[in-house]
Design a protein that fits this description.
The chain is α+β, with helices and mostly antiparallel strands and 206 residues long. A hairpin with an 8-residue loop joins strand 6 and strand 7. Helix 3 crosses helix 4. 5% of the residues are buried.
Length: 206
């Protein structure tokens, strides 16, 4: 049985929806205009690690100061590239290498460690690392060229502006490319904790 409340509540609700334009919400949304001429520029990010190494010194913001490779390599005679990082006796010691069965010379030129080489032996500048990685990681390279791997900043539609694509080494360490496992930034917290975290239950987040 309809109550007096129902008799005025539903018409009032319908009036509110009409005032908010609710009846027009079932209309299809208008699509954005199609892409125009690609006037924007695409840039490939060049991480500092391609041409420099971290030092044990810090800058004013507490970040490690980087030293150009040329700072040392231009002053010393280049020695042949070793096969494994464990053979390094002076510089770059402690380098962790977990990249299949590859050797240092699989990617670096033996006589010019600051440059790379393709599987054909063709020399390759250090900044062309994406081409090098694409030789073995074909499916990822295919997806990278299609924009589905690697990520970017800026505009997908180059008719609207520029974009910067990530480099392989923007996300992967070439010497140990596998992603390490991660943990949530904040542990679960019971509503009654009142801002306190139980570190006994979550020792990884102390």
């Amino acid at each position: 049985m309809e109550s007096p409340l129902d008799r005025w509540m539903y018409p009032a609700l319908a009036a509110v929806l009409l005032a908010l334009g609710g009846c027009g919400k079932d209309q299809p949304a208008r699509f954005q205009p199609p892409p125009g001429a690609p006037t924007g520029k695409e840039t490939l990010h060049q991480p500092a690690k391609l041409t420099s190494v971290e030092s044990d010194q810090k800058d004013a913001l507490g970040r490690p100061l980087r030293v150009s490779c040329e700072s040392c390599h231009s002053l010393r005679e280049t020695k042949p590239m070793p096969s494994r990082p464990e053979e390094l006796k002076e510089f770059h010691q402690g380098l962790q290498f977990r990249h299949g069965e590859l050797a240092c010379t699989s990617c670096h030129q033996a006589s010019q460690p600051r440059s790379l080489h393709l599987a054909t032996g063709e020399p390759l500048p250090m900044t062309e690392v994406v081409t090098l990685c694409g030789q073995c990681h074909g499916s990822q390279y295919r997806d990278f060229k299609a924009g589905a791997h690697g990520g970017m900043t800026g505009h997908w539609d180059l008719s609207r502006g520029d974009r910067t694509r990530n480099n392989c080494v923007s996300c992967h360490d070439p010497h140990s490319p596998k992603y390490a496992g991660g943990h949530p930034v904040m542990p679960p917290r019971h509503p009654s904790a009142q801002g306190e975290t139980d570190t006994k239950e979550h020792p990884d987040h102390e």
